[in-house]
Design a protein that fits this description.
The chain has 636 residues and is an alpha+beta fold. It has seven domains: 89 residues, Phosphorylase Kinase, domain 1; 194 residues, Transferase(Phosphotransferase) domain 1 (Transferase(Phosphotransferase), domain 1, Orthogonal Bundle); 33 residues; 63 residues, Trypsin Inhibitor V, Chain A, CATH 3.30.10; 64 residues, Trypsin Inhibitor V, Chain A (2-Layer Sandwich); 66 residues, Trypsin Inhibitor V, Chain A (2-Layer Sandwich); 63 residues, 2-Layer Sandwich (Trypsin Inhibitor V, Chain A), CATH 3.30.10. Helix content is 32%, strand content 25%. The two termini are 28 Å apart.
Length: 636
């Protein structure tokens, strides 16, 4: 590949990476005089529809995302019977390489890296995309510390596909419990994976390990991880709280979104209280133990007062009647005074109780306004509702420090005593004010409607558009823009676009019975690609076309593949279908037919796929020459 030129402009310099299905090369863009990365789908998979669809999907997704923390896509197309994606060349190391070489990453650097990952995920989530494969291998760190997210090959759209995940995609070490269970996913699954990456950066280890992907997935679902501080003693408790909040088993208990997570990471760096700590304090005050003062009245039975014998009598003498009457009156007067005294005391206590009870009732309807400044507006609204207070957006204002949709100020201020049911007004941030200079968004791969919307949101405009045929882009898709993505221009300036009119439609001609060299020249002149397959025949001259696929008269697009079957007198063997068989069984069948074979291993997603033939090349029911080899792709 070194020295090859792709699409008449990209010269391959060297190979910089290799994955399961594609290779990545450093190339020089001769038109724009810059380095680019070229990702080329392996020819082994270029004929596999599912791999091609996934490759194309990755290019389409990247074309929709415009952010400094996401690798930008510049171009895509066909090359040498395969497909390529041209993207931004992010010079640096993967986070996996950094951890392998360096080990533990400091908490401050970990937070700075994570904030940039959150920025990339914010853009993806705003475009209704879940990445589903956040891991150190897909995170590039440039020499200046900029983080770039790559590999959106298995990203999922919540708009286009809200069904359960049929296959457990992603890497087992980083997948969320709901992803491991094949449940419906939300943006929270990316937060969980980022939490695992945080864990790995802080400890140079993973929360769960196992002998296979199933064992690891079950641990994600059922087991609690060891706290990072138990492995590395100097990890600050604040960033550990952030991490543990990200990897909660229940998605509802994690951060509400990556914007809130990003704000807490910034709070950690700025040594400010975490949003989750404030939330926990509020929950404790609202749901903690209530102290109830019970006022108990002790009712005592009044002692018996003998009104007729207040003074002890002497058995030896009998008082005169007049004297007895005087003593009775004195005794009655004393007892009546005591009764009045007790009634007065009771009345006083009753009045005191009534006043205190009224004050208690009144105090229960008065509370201090909680602090909601610097909080996400919707979170603050929910928090105040728990205190029987309402939150209203008074106005919006630009802010250099407070993120968009977070509260800049509140009225009444925190700590003010107000009645339950009262209204708290908030000034909400609109984010940073738009600069007169803006970066041109990446519009390549978008339909014209979405491109127009994005251009308008960026305070730019489209000057004119040009329709042109495209071999790779569907009709209505932007194929070219000027100025290019990322170039800074003044607001209200114009951007020129080229729009795909799709491939030209042609009709497959009737070429059965013609010599194959003539047929190939005719089909290629029509812009079609030709695949030749030989079929043993004693009835036709060698080289004559016996049949074609698709059939004559079928409407196809320029660049489509046409298979022609030509007669040959050569002795050939019809390939059997050995896919989904064990490697031993497949080899036994091929050996019984004297068919030679080569074996290549590919990564299996499930243990059940190990040692099975995942695919074969050439395809089943294809004739091959004696001595020609069959390639078997075995799951490992």
């Amino acid at each position: 590949m070194i020295g090859n030129i792709i699409a008449d402009r990209y010269k391959i310099i060297n190979k910089i990476g290799s994955g399961g299905t594609a290779d990545v090369y450093l190339a020089w863009d001769g038109k724009l005089n810059r380095y680019v990365a070229i990702k080329i789908l392996s020819k082994t998979y270029a004929s596999e529809k599912n791999f091609v669809a996934r490759f194309k999907k990755e290019a389409q997704i990247l074309a929709r995302l415009n952010d400094p923390n996401i690798v930008a896509i510049y171009d895509w197309g066909q090359y040498d019977n395969s497909y390529f994606i041209c993207m931004e060349y992010a010079e640096g190391q993967s986070l996996e390489e950094i951890i392998d070489k360096q080990g533990i990453i400091s908490p401050e650097v970990t937070a700075r890296y994570a904030i940039q990952i959150c920025s990339a995920l914010e853009v993806a989530h705003k475009n209704n995309l879940i990445h589903r494969d956040i891991k150190p291998q897909n995170i590039i760190v440039t020499p200046d510390g900029t983080v770039k997210i790559t590999d959106f090959g298995i990203a999922k759209s919540l708009i286009e596909d809200n069904t359960k995940t049929i296959n457990i995609l992603g890497t087992a070490y980083y997948i969320s419990p709901e992803q491991a269970q094949g449940k419906i996913l939300s943006y929270s699954t990316d937060i969980y994976s980022l939490g695992v990456v945080l864990y790995e950066m802080l400890t140079a280890d993973l929360p769960f390990r196992g002998e296979n992907s199933i064992e690891i997935s079950l641990k994600h679902i059922n087991e609690k991880p060891i706290r990072p501080s138990a492995l590395v003693s100097n990890i600050p408790p604040e960033i550990e709280k952030i991490l543990m909040h990200c990897i909660e088993k229940n998605p509802q208990k994690r951060y509400e979104n990556v914007s809130v997570l990003k704000a807490d990471l910034q709070n950690f760096l700025n040594k400010k209280p975490l949003l989750i700590e404030k939330q926990q304090e509020r929950e404790k005050s609202l749901y903690g133990k209530s102290i109830i003062n019970k006022i108990t009245f002790l009712k005592r039975e009044p002692k018996h007062l003998d009104g007729y014998s207040s003074f002890p009598k002497e058995d030896s003498e009998e008082e005169p009647p007049e004297k007895n009457k005087k003593k009775f009156r004195l005794s009655f007067t004393i007892n009546l005074s005591i009764a009045y005294f007790l009634a007065a005391v009771f009345l006083t206590l009753f009045i005191i109780f009534t006043i205190n009870y009224s004050d208690l009732k009144a105090s229960q309807n008065i509370l201090a306004v909680p602090q909601v400044e610097k909080m996400f507006f919707e979170n603050a609204k929910a928090a105040l509702a728990l205190s029987d207070l309402e939150l209203e957006k008074k106005s919006e204002s630009f802010s250099e420090d407070v993120p968009q949709n977070y509260i800049i100020s509140q009225e009444p201020k925190a700590g003010t005593q107000i009645a339950k049911g009262s209204m708290v007004e908030a000034v909400v941030s609109k984010g940073k004010e738009i600069s007169p200079i803006v970066a041109v968004p990446n519009l390549i791969g978008l339909n014209i409607s979405d491109a127009t919307k994005i251009i308008n949101e960026a305070s730019l405009k489209i000057s004119d558009t040009l329709n042109e045929p495209s071999d790779f882009f569907e009709p209505g898709i932007v194929t070219f823009q000027d100025p290019p993505p990322g170039k800074e221009i003044k607001i209200n300036e114009a951007v020129k676009l080229k729009i795909s009119s799709g491939k030209n439609i042609v009709m497959v001609p009737n070429i059965i019975g013609y010599d194959y060299l003539y047929v190939i020249s005719q089909l290629e002149a029509m812009g079609l690609n030709v695949n030749i397959k030989r079929v043993p025949s004693t009835d036709s001259l060698p080289g004559k076309v016996l049949r074609i696929s698709p059939e004559a008269g079928t409407k196809v697009k320029e660049g489509d593949l046409i298979s022609i079957y030509i007669a040959t007198t050569e002795q050939m063997i019809l390939l059997p279908d050995v896919t989904q068989l064990s490697v031993d069984k497949a080899v036994s069948i091929l050996q019984s037919l004297n068919i030679l074979y080569d074996i290549s291993n590919i990564e299996a997603q499930y243990d059940i796929q190990k040692n099975l033939v995942m695919s074969q090349y050439p395809d089943p029911d294809t004739y091959i020459s004696i001595g020609e080899k069959v390639l078997l792709l075995i799951g490992k």
